[in-house]
């Protein structure tokens, strides 16, 4: 587990009156805020799908934008919640091996976790970098989803949120690496 604060109540223990503590607290709030936005979008997606089902049954046709909006919303949900998943150390890995290994060899476990997070940070960084070109193209060309004359939405706001989620998750991975290398093998408090 990381020694980085896992929620806004952990940040004060790092010294909330210091500049570093304030930055840590703001970072935790940003990550949690993006996760909360992703959770709200799950409700929005459920509403969109339910409204489409009702429209198909009552009107005999689908609502405009549903398939495209649903796809973009689903991708946004995944990336907006990814940084919180990383921060809480909930990414999928072989816990059958990793957890006992970390308990038996805390230093080696911390180094292995740091390596895992470093690879994740690099992959997410490359993904974020490639997303910048897509955002630029969508914005300059006026890309949109939907059917012209019926209902359309520009795609760039969705892409910006996706990019934000990817970038924040990449930074969170870097934070996890730094925390693991600073205090290898150190156990977290009671909330671990």
TrEMBL record:
Cited Pfam families: DctQ
Entry keyword Cell division: no
Matching InterPro entries: DctQ
Record keywords, A-Z: Cell inner membrane, Cell membrane, Membrane, Transmembrane, Transmembrane helix, Transport
Topology within the bilayer: Multi-pass membrane protein
Assigned protein family: Belongs to the TRAP transporter small permease family.
Protein name: TRAP transporter small permease protein
Source organism of the structure: Tranquillimonas alkanivorans
């Amino acid at each position: 587990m990381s020694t980085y604060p896992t929620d806004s109540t952990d940040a004060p223990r790092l010294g909330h009156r210091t500049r570093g503590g304030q930055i840590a607290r703001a970072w935790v709030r940003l990550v949690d805020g993006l996760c909360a936005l992703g959770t709200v979008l799950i409700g929005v997606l459920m509403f969109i799908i339910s409204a489409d089902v009702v429209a198909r049954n009552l009107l005999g046709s689908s609502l405009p934008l549903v398939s495209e909006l649903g796809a973009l919303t689903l991708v946004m949900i995944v990336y907006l919640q990814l940084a919180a998943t990383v921060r809480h150390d909930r990414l999928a890995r072989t816990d059958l091996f990793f957890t006992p290994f970390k308990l038996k060899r805390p230093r080696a476990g911390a180094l292995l976790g740091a390596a895992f997070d470093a690879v994740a940070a690099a992959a997410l960084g490359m993904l974020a970098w490639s997303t910048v070109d897509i955002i630029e193209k969508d914005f300059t060309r006026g890309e949109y989803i939907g059917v012209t004359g019926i209902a359309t939405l520009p795609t760039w706001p969705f892409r910006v949120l996706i990019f934000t989620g990817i970038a924040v998750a990449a930074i969170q991975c870097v934070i996890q690496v730094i925390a693991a290398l600073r205090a290898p093998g150190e156990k977290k408090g009671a909330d671990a």
